[in-house]
Sequence to fold (272 residues):
Amino acid sequence: MSFIDHLEALRWHIIRAAIAVLVFATGAFLAKDFLFHDLILGPSRPDFWTYQMFCRVGKMINAPDLCMTDVGFVIQNREMSGQLAMHLSTSFTVGLVLGFPYLFWELWRFISPGLYPHERANSRGAVFFVSILFICGLLFGYYVASPLSINFLAGYVVDPTIENQIDLQSYLSTLTTMTLSCAFVFELPMIVFFLAKAGLITHEIMRMYRKHAIVVILIIAAIITPPDVSSQLIVTVPILALYELSIHIARVVRRKDVSRLNQELADNQGIA
Fold:
């Protein structure tokens, strides 16, 4: 294919992806009550699922402080068109999130024809695993990381006489940042897989720099969580588990590559 033909093919992939995002965004816009009251504003109420689970755990271990009866803040809007603008922008963001698996699939359809047969075979299932990891990270960010951050930051006071009245945009920004950050962090195993297939990283290198990686993970957890030890540990442990899983993935990739090269060498010797 010529360069113009590649651009034409890319254009249609982008058009189909844009249509998918628009469809999801339109659905999110029409489902306003569910989108805002149940989904987005859920972590701002004491009856949120995560808070209920913490309360149950608190009763089991005799720690009543884990039960939340009041969120300690009020969400408000100070701009005339603020709620409409938030409705539109949030619907578009939800459209991107829901359409992410399809977006990646369209990207893969554009890239895969340029790969060698063995490269396509080695990357089989990439769309599925990328989507699964993204969804897992999204759920972890929404149900674990975001509630912890919102509860700590919005309930923190320097003086009892100061009332926390949180702007709607600030609340949405915190929720979106925390949730999407976890979603993309959970893609670490797939990133390592492709880097290992390209020969840019090995499990030996990852083991060698494990201590450095732990420091980086702690810094990332400190950035995306409130400044308390429990929240940082809750976020750090899954990321460390993903790093260890990535080491195993790099080891498997290396083993398969060595096996394939040995087989090709044996075949070539047999032909000679």
Remarks:
- The chain is about 75% helix and 0% strand.
- Strands lie at 74-76, 165-167.
